[in-house]
Amino acid sequence: MYVRILKVANNMKHYYTTILLSFALLCMPVLCGCKEQQVEKSSFGQVDVFSDGDVLVDDVNGESEPETEISEEQLLTSDRPIKTSSKLDVDSLPAEVTKMIGLCDAINMSCVELQSAYNSSDTDFVWHCVHMYVANCRDEEMGFIKVGDCYEADPKIVNAVIYAMFGKLGSIPKVSGSAFDNLGGDTHVKISNGLKYQFSIGDRGMSIPQVRNATEYSDGSLEMEVALVNSETEEETVSFIYTMRANTRDTTTGALFAYEITGARPADRATSDKIEGMPFLVPVMQVYGYDAYDMDDPKHAQVEEVLYYGSFKEHVPGVDEINARISHEILEYANAPVDESSWHEVCSYPLTTDQYVQVAITFATYPQDTAGPDIRCYNYDKKKTRAMDINDALELIESSEEALMSRIGQLAGGGSSADIKGFIVRRDGSVDFFCMIRDEGTEKKLAAYNSGADELRVISDGEDVLPEDETDDMKPELTHGRKD
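User: That's the sequence. What structure does it adopt?
Assistant: Structure tokens below.
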């Protein structure tokens, strides 16, 4: 597998694989009736509107200046060039445009694999992108030949690929072997005795490219949004908008590529957050007994759902510590052996909002745990870029632990005691405090107190850990053992 989407804590060596436009006719500038359209801005850069007739004003470097307010009269009388756009049909792209999709796809995969943004100045990133392209290219015109466990490529072709991927490069960078050593010590990119490049063969997993938008401009440039998605579920891993210009190095009709990529930026908030290192939840274990055992086998009821916090950057404050907790408290539990008549039930309930990335995980071994499951919660504050604890939750509800425990005790009934096991900040801003309640007879039950409703619900009596319509839609789907 090529694509690693998760690096966990430093003291663990768990790497998980997944999964994870010929330029037609130039649009003639239309001066009559044109209106400047302000291009939307976001914290992660310019967001294009991808609609016909957008007007951008170029500076001397060819970069758009969306922040400059220019009146319609100024546009019509200015000597500065006006650029108009025309949206392309992504289901029927020109051949020359279609050929660029493979390049964008390879860059997408490399961004995920290396947990990096598009970077033409990083030699390792450049060669990784080329490797991804060659290894996944099915265009016979490129002339890549399978030789043993490698694809062999002519240097002239490789150079054309590099310049098409990284149009602003001044020269071809040298191959850096250190970035391509795998665990066995073999290199993924090398030069053969015949002075040809050789790229190792691999499996990209369950990912495919998906073109979502394409816009050509009257100056010959192009923008295309290409996402990397799961081939079965179409769940997005990342999505980038690629900026391209006409090939400046080979202007002949025989050029391998009509365009060269000059930049890439996140197409949506989710991709932006990932590139900026914002943690996100990914499944690292999903085991369901109904997939492997007969109905009459006790292990038919087995459920093991474990999520980790992923990040496109290493050492994000708090993430290593959270993953270490999950590994010790949940993963080790799920991996612990049980006898033939017993089974695990480990269920994850992720809840991601604009501010928080959270997951509540219940766990039990049946039939031994007659009182029901225990629970652990893992919480990350994206705005404060740190893990959360009980004090953060108490601050949100403007209460103390003593006052909270007193109220839970009142709702649970006289003589009951409670231990706080964790919390989840709900989408409405209220907080669910999960607690283990013990009555006078020492019987224990898992319950949740909601600060907004001021109510206690007993999960051990069949109440939801979290409402299903509030939890994240993950792919593969988290079923908690329910096939329906």
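Residues 18 and 150 are 22 Å apart (CA to CA).
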